[in-house]
């Protein structure tokens, strides 16, 4: 982790100022929550995904409870002044070189952060804005996620980056950057401000970092609270099991019908909670069933939800190349930076937060694209820093001048195809790696090796530069990959499109969402912190839209025309529901559709109109999905709707029996039509209505002729036109009766 800028970026430690009340490191819980307060959202995990989501949802006026397993980090969150998390230069001490390590999750076999800020509080400040490729369909994202730009801009407005984090504008210990520049420029690299041109990631290099957030009354954070599992009633979450008895009896938090639960506990933490809640592969749920403390909390087997949780996992495979050069100050390899930092640097930092300690060890980062024989492209990210990691540097036992050592980390990123699996490793419910995700693909090995060989040749470009990495050990690692390749930049265990849908709703559930690194389907171009936060910005906007149910009204005009024309009479007209499809999570739990449900035609209340329109009201959300469109297309072909073509995405669709009461001056008709469909789609910011019938016939002018019987079981047909003067209209324009050779028109 110290080598490649750990999974989620120290940057986000600054965001946690949004917490209204947080604990100090000596207290257990921060609020008295007896009396079952009402929350719109319960968010589990205060990492970068959870914090952004909590921030945006509370900003939208939602009541938010944020639960964090660990304790505070920065002074903003209740930590003591000048913690390891407040001082960028103390980053290496977080891993035990000289400081404590109690903020790592003891039951996960990787360095997962259990504290406010999550992994982002134990990072090297490598905060890169996401590229377009990070959210491309080629990377596994749905089409609806590809326009990340407005959400990334929201992130940048809240958390802008900086090339220099020392207030005096000086970059310290820059000998490594100078040598790296000497190596790169002859190879065609350009020095740019990386975050000013995030999509330029071939032969570029630059420097890194971050900033701020806010507080709200409708936001509450409780730390030192571990969520063990979620209580389910079928597909709906009805409670949260925690270890915090201040939150309820036995730590149980009831989840009301209007409350949504958002998992943001990270790749390992989120997966474990899902397993413990009966969601995921059976072999993982079996571990939970064999644990005497958790077995009784698992829902019945009939309610298990089989999803590939823990599969599809990726982490950047990386190699540390250790060099020595007489110009380098390795800063004592950072081993005493916590207990015995250099006095002059401490004095400078205490005076105005400037100097060596104001900057994290990585001094420069650079990227390069490589092509494979099959024509695909893989990207490499590199990071250079003074010092080295003796457990990852592939060093021989021979001695060398460690005071002159620096490291260039070579990591494979976008385009890598190797994947693995994480999950539970025992009935104690510890989590870890089950199948290594590093270099299982031969092309991944080939490209990483090519990039490493390019760097190994660097001493020829810089006088007195010497490589200390043992090449035999290096080749052995490439041919037999182990966790030594790991960068702890985990993504994918709850991949979007596989475990969660495009609204981040866990598939086959009604009110459970995931917003963290686990939904990211592929490795990002750079350290994923920026992509995680941009994804959380976008997910938050979807959650806000998702949480709103509407009375979706389709209008059936009733006004007659001069002459003996029939008109629709709302009284006695109805639609009986037989089938339906609603985008996941858009069904109001308090107003569920059901087979045989009768929707009586209502009327608009227009005092100026003697003939108010008839109305059918469908109560649900307005979030579109391809699944609803598939339902529509499977029931109606392109010639059986007013549009005359198939649907791409729809918000909802209902199919049933339409009964219309019609009358004119001298006659009354009751007509019945089977297999009629109403659906709502979107065009830009406008919702529009689809109207169809199995066996109906599309007519020019956005019309559909439907066929049924009258009250005497005689054939009758009608022609409806979509839109009319209102996108919410489905207007009757023609009636064909069996006892008349002519058509009766209402327009």
From TrEMBL:
Its cofactor is FAD. Pfam families: GMC_oxred_C (PF05199), NAD_binding_8 (PF13450). Keywords: Signal. SUPFAM superfamilies: FAD-linked reductases, C-terminal domain, FAD/NAD(P)-binding domain. Residues 1-19 form the signal peptide. InterPro entries: FAD/NAD-bd_sf, GMC_Oxidoreductase_CD, GMC_OxRtase_C. Residues 418-536 form the Glucose-methanol-choline oxidoreductase C-terminal domain. The keyword Signal applies. GO terms for molecular function: oxidoreductase activity, acting on CH-OH group of donors. This is FAD/NAD(P)-binding domain-containing protein. It comes from Schizopora paradoxa.
């Amino acid at each position: 982790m110290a080598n490649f800028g750990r999974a989620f970026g120290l940057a986000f430690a600054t965001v946690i100022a949004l917490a209204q009340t947080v604990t100090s490191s000596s207290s257990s819980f921060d609020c008295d929550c007896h009396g079952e307060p009402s929350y719109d959202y319960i968010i589990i995990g205060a990492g970068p995904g959870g914090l952004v989501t909590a921030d945006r949802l509370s900003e939208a006026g939602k009541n938010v409870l944020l639960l964090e397993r660990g304790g505070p980090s920065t002074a903003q969150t209740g930590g003591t002044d000048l913690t390891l998390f407040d001082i960028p230069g103390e980053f290496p001490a977080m891993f035990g070189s000289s400081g404590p390590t109690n903020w790592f999750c003891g039951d996960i076999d990787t360095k997962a952060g259990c504290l406010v800020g999550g992994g982002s509080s134990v990072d090297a400040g490598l905060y890169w804005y996401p590229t377009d490729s990070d959210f491309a369909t080629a990377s596994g994202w749905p089409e609806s996620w590809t326009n990340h730009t407005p959400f990334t801009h929201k992130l940048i407005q809240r958390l802008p980056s900086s090339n220099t984090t020392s207030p005096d504008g000086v970059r310290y210990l820059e000998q490594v950057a100078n040598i790296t520049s000497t190596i790169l420029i002859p190879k065609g690299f350009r020095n740019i401000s990386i975050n000013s041109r995030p999509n330029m990631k071939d032969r570029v290099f630059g420097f890194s970092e971050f900033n701020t957030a806010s507080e709200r009354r409708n936001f509450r954070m409780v730390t030192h609270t571990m969520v063990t599992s979620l209580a389910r009633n079928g597909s709906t979450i009805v409670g949260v099991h925690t270890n915090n008895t201040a939150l309820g009896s036995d730590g149980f938090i009831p989840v009301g019908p209007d409350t949504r639960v958002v998992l943001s506990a990270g790749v390992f933490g989120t997966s474990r909670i899902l397993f413990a809640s009966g969601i995921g592969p059976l072999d993982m749920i079996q571990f939970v069933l064999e644990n005497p403390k958790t077995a009784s909390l698992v829902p019945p087997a009939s309610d298990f939800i089989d999803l590939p949780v823990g599969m599809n996992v990726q982490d950047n495979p990386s190699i540390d190349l250790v060099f020595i050069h007489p110009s380098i100050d390795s800063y004592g390899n950072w081993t005493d930076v916590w207990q015995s930092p250099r006095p002059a640097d401490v004095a400078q930092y205490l005076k105005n937060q400037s100097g060596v300690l104001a900057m994290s060890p990585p001094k420069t980062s650079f990227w390069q694209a490589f092509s494979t024989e099959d024509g695909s492209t893989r990207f490499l990210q590199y990071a250079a820093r003074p010092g080295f990691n003796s457990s990852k540097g592939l060093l021989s036992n021979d001695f060398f001048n460690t005071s002159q050592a620096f490291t260039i980390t070579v990591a494979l990123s976008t385009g890598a195809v190797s994947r693995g699996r994480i999950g539970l490793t025992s009935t104690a419910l510890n989590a870890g790696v089950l199948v290594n995700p590093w270099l299982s693909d031969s092309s991944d090995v080939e490209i990483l090796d090519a990039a490493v060989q390019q760097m190994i040749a660097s001493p020829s470009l810089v006088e007195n530069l010497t490589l200390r990495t043992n090449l035999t050990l290096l080749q052995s690692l490439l041919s037999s990959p182990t966790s030594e390749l790991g960068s702890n930049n985990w993504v994918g265990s709850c991949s979007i499109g596989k475990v969660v849908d495009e609204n981040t709703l866990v598939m086959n559930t009604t009110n459970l969402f995931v917003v963290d690194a686990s939904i990211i389907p592929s490795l990002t171009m750079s350290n994923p912190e920026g992509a995680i936060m941009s994804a959380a910005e976008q997910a938050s906007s979807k959650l806000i839209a998702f949480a709103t149910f509407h009375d979706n009204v389709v209008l059936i005009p009733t006004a007659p025309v001069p002459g003996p024309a029939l008109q629709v009479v709302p009284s006695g007209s109805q639609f009986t529901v037989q089938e339906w499809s609603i985008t996941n999570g858009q069904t109001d739990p308090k107003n569920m559709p059901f087979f045989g449900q009768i929707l009586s035609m209502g009327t608009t209340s227009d005092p100026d109109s003697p003939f108010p329109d008839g109305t059918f009201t469908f109560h649900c959300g307005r979030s579109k999905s391809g699944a609803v469109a598939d339902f529509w297309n499977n029931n109606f072909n392109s010639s059986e709707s007013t549009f005359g073509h198939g649907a791409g995405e729809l918000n909802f669709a209902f199919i049933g029996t339409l009964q219309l009461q019609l009358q004119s001056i001298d006659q009354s008709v009751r007509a019945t039509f089977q297999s009629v469909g109403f659906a709502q789609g979107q065009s830009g910011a406008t919702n529009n209505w689809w109207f169809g019938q199995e066996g109906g016939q599309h007519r020019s002018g956005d019309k559909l002729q439907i066929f049924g019987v009258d009250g005497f079981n005689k054939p009758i047909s009608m022609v409806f036109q979509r839109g009319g003067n209102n996108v919410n209209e489905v207007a009757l324009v023609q009636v064909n009766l069996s006892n008349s050779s002519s058509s009766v028109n209402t327009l």
